[in-house]
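May I ask you to comment on the folded chain given beneath this request?
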Amino acid sequence: MQGGQIAGQVSGADGQRYQIESELGRGGFGTVYRARMRGAGGFEKTVALKVLNAEIAEEPGFAERLRDEARILGLLQHRAIVRVDDLLRLDGAWTVVMELVGGVDLKRLLTGGPLPAGPALEIVEEVASALACAFAATGPDGEQVRLIHRDIKPSNVHLTAAGEVKVLDFGVARAEFQHRESQTRSLFFGSIGYMAPERIDGIDTHAGDVYSLGSVLCELISGAPVGRTSAHPERHESVRTAALQRLWDRCPDTALYELVARCLAYDPEARPSARELARTARQLRAAHPEPWLRDWAEATVPGLRRTPRPVSATTGSGAHGATSAPIDPSAVSAATGTSPSLARPAPAASGRAALVGAVVAGFVLVAGVGGLAATLLLGGPAAAPAPAAPTATAAPPPRRAARSLLAEDEPPAEAAPAPAPAPAPAPTGA
């Protein structure tokens, strides 16, 4: 294999043979293939092969992280977590043999517009349940592994035509278990557009995954990303207020509004646990009409699968999370640019939207491969209810010196933030 390229038939040490059928996704870290696994007695099965790219195989940390991902997934048993069947070397390259997940990711689903609130809540319930299971799982020594995914975003969650939800790409997950090889204390990982404010300072907790999933829920229903937050409470509140405004415009449900507001709280302790988020999403689902997720997926997913989406060679967005390559901040100073206007629902009352950029003060701006950057379109009409003030308003903790490993599909913005609008009265009970 060269540069993550494999073709034809390859064999594992255990005698199993893999017939490569197609490439599913590619990133700077690994390449994912669809393959036919053949074993003794005529046994056959379609699988996904996640192969470490040859050009980085000898660099410290990459092979260890791929092996850790396989070990982590081997510890987890949940219907919404992609299953790992084996970890082996194929033609000398470390390879994870994984369950082949069909369907499309949530990023692709959003190209068709916002999702109905009911199916969106069912999706988030499944993901939250998987995160709760991963955090509470025990390792071979009987100790809790405390797994944190650290990169929950729409492109890492798949929905099949049968309505099954799958969480992918545990390649940057953090866990405590025996035989772990890679160490990540001096790094931080994730996609900056879905990253909790404390994670900008290198603080990894279970609450950070809840923040990311709350961002996904808000985006699924409102149709627009929450956007890059800030370690500064005031700037974070400005982004949070605008995102909740869009959510309310699209779906004026007070209980849903309050749930998302809690998930996006500045203070990690003010957020619900993943288990509580799953339970609350299930309860809120009853208040929203059909379609049910399975019926909606059967009608929606096949049409999206018939329209191929190009796979980015730099971000690796595609099946099974072909993890992005790391970015070396020492080689990047800053980048500027604008993105096309983000889709958003029609306002309930007249108003002018404000272009709000996000800047992390004192932090080296990191651009994606190719010098990507974006300016996020945030804001909304003042007529709809605005959120209550966040629980924590104190200054953020001191920043830690940390190298960054950010996914390139949510690049940072450069513009200075506009002042936050004065909050309007919150909905009853907020």
About this structure: The first helix runs from residue 62 to 75. Helices lie at 62-75, 106-109, 117-136, 206-222, 233-250, 254-263, 274-285, 293-305. The first strand starts at residue 9 and ends at 11.
